[in-house]
ferric-chelate reductase (NADPH) (Cryptococcus amylolentus CBS 6273), 720 residues
Amino acid sequence: MSVAAAVVTMANAVASSAAHAYFDERSYAHSGHGSSSSSNSTTAVTGTTAHGSSSSNTTTSSDSSSNSTSSDSSSNSTSSDSSSNSTSSISGTTSHGSSSGTSTGHSGTSGKHGHSHTSGDPFYTDVQVWMWYATCAVIGLLAIYHGYQLLQKWRRQRKAPLTAEKATEKRLKPWAAAYAGGRNWLNATAFPSWLYAPETVADALWTSAYMVVVFAITFRESAGWSFDAHSAQGIANLFGQMAFAQMPLIMFLAMKNNPISLLTGIPYQNLNYLHRAGSRCILVWSWIHTGLSTIRITGGRDSWSATYIIWGWVALAALTLLTMSSFTIVRRRLHQLFFTSHIVLAILYMVGAYIHWDEEGTWIWMCFVIWGFDRVVRWGRTIWTNRLWKAGRGECTIEVLEGDCLRLSFKRYGFTWKAGQHVFVSAPRVSKGPVEAHPFTISNASNDEHEVVILSRVYGGFTRDLLKAISSTSDKTVRAYIDGPYGQAHSLSSYDHVLMFPMLTHSTGGTGIAPWTAQMLELVNSKKHARTQLVHLVWIVREASVISWVAPFLDQAAALLKANPANIKLAFDVYVTRGSVPQEKRGLDTPTEKSGQLTPDTSESEYDTVAHLPAAPKDISLTSSNEPAHHSLGKLISPEAMSFVRFHKGRPDLKTIIEQDASTCPEAMAYGGESFFILSFCGPLGLMQTCRTALKQASNFSTVLKGQTPIDFYEETLGQ
């Protein structure tokens, strides 16, 4: 017998005995075909190492098997306990957590806890590597598509718009109509808001595709579906490993400073949906791992009291509660509770998962590194943007407007942004927590004065605390910091016609108009490569007096149009659902819904009531009781601005407005890839679903094939 073979045999025998003693002490029955703790031994034939693998083709030398005569190891000389630690002379490769034959490809269970990996193994397995191969491939494809879209926008901006005569010379191809109609159907078909499900068909397809790919990768190396005691633990380990491998991706998708957004052009708030979908996948995979692992626990009460079992249940409970607290109703109605519980439960989950299976701990450390990097970048940018090392740093002026609205003004030199982007605002002396920060869309366009303006309704929480802070003193200045800008701004300058549907958001405190006043100013002020010919805003409000919120922006737009004459038309229609309408600017012949006629998805309260708003404190008064319902328009808006502002009584007929605006686009008969019209929404879920329904009715395969302009649409939700 050779010396090398003898050493191998002795090492296998000692390791096998030690492993059996380790498990018997804990009364836990582990996988019979898993590798022993001597998985790093090598054969004299190949000199390669098998890390936690078992193979029906694995052999040992005749010398080592014939001389293994001790009572502890002789019976195992050709069993999986010894042969799994030898490499096949045929393969000559290193196996990282794989098995063949009738095994389940669970990367072989190590001696500890029935889980995989042994000392000296890499922290990843093949199945986890394939998961990240697929992730990088998808990101790469999206990055290529993003580059193509940027190129198309660049070409559109530099191409002169077609006249009505030239547009009729072109014909629409069926495939282009199918693409336009199908795209709007995918993005505009919504599920009920109360259902804990994807918001649109496109979201559902992304979620389903994600789950299918992860499921396929999980069973990539599985050779069978045998659910006996041994196979159950192997499959359980696969699901557990895939749950760990997804954690860094979920953390990437939650980052504000997101490299995936930079590569793909998808705003982080949109990626936040995939963050939630991936988290649900981890939850399902974790429960499957738990269920299958429970089959292997046969040691009675002592096994259930093992430390790693207890912490496994702690991690699973934290993840389950975290998912339940992420329901839409909690995120929108109890945002601070959602935010706090999200952090606490996420940390508890990761700590519990680490203690439960520390061999997979590298994936968890990655999560902390990613989160820490994001926080450091945000803190550093906050310090730089607000010049915290200078005197008078971080000042914010707050003005109280009619209708429970606050106007926040920040002077931040060197700070620039694009229309549609948002910032996070924190006020150390007002906030309830040291890391409390709230997102607000910037209402004005970037300017030479470096003034950032934010409009926000007072709706409990942070905004009500700001109001209280300035109500007790004559000084309307508070210490507040901004962090940003965030969000991939949608450039609207490459579109011929732009139609916006902002709505006063009574249920969450939003004005609805903030993103679009900035877009309006940016389009009007565009000095080059501006293709846009019409900007049409349709604002749905309760009282006409709220026009005072945007009066400065309307005056600024009028001044820009006068100073920079261009072929751009601006229309600002205000639909007042309650209260009186100024007689001097009442709109005529404008489509409105019939009295009492509502879209099924939208309730009357979403348009006309604010009964669910918290009552203002008795010591705080926003407007005097004897103040008129609305001022004279002449005192609020300049004569130039009054030329494009119109008031209407009632609710707008969204479908008719969309059809009329699309029909006036000069390229209404143009080729599908050459005509451009965008529809933008901002408001509560009820109105968004109403707009989606109107869009599907106005723009589908049939209407586009007949010559209607294809419509792109975009929703502003800040990821909520």
